[in-house]
Amino acid sequence: MTIYENEPKTWKDLQNKVAEILTVCGYKCEVEKEIITVREKVNVDVYAEINSQVSKSVIICECKFWAKAIPKSVVHSFRTVINDYGANYGLIISKIGFQSGAFEAIKNTNVQL
């Protein structure tokens, strides 16, 4: 599914487009935000937060503008960040796609590819 007429031209463009989409969905977004997890400070590509009267929801996005498919090792590392921060969801966005192991690595998690 194509949302934009023009594909992102750089990794920064990809991050900004992801933030734009989440902003339209009602989230307050920050690009390249430093967060503090239980282990360390981490710089995330896109941080999105929405507050309702009942709760807060946080989405953290990893944007990969790579010329190759994303391996499962990236998913494993990102899952750790999501869990250590306590985010509701994690999204990995890729220019090319994902290796088959990446799809296995998200089973029963709050991370989507």
Automatic annotation (TrEMBL):
GO terms for molecular function: endonuclease activity; hydrolase activity. Residues 10-113 form the Restriction endonuclease type IV Mrr domain. It is an enzyme of class 3 (hydrolase). Its EC number is 3.1.21.-. Pfam families: Mrr_cat. Keywords: Endonuclease, Hydrolase, Nuclease. Signal peptide: none annotated. This is Restriction endonuclease. It comes from Pseudopedobacter beijingensis.
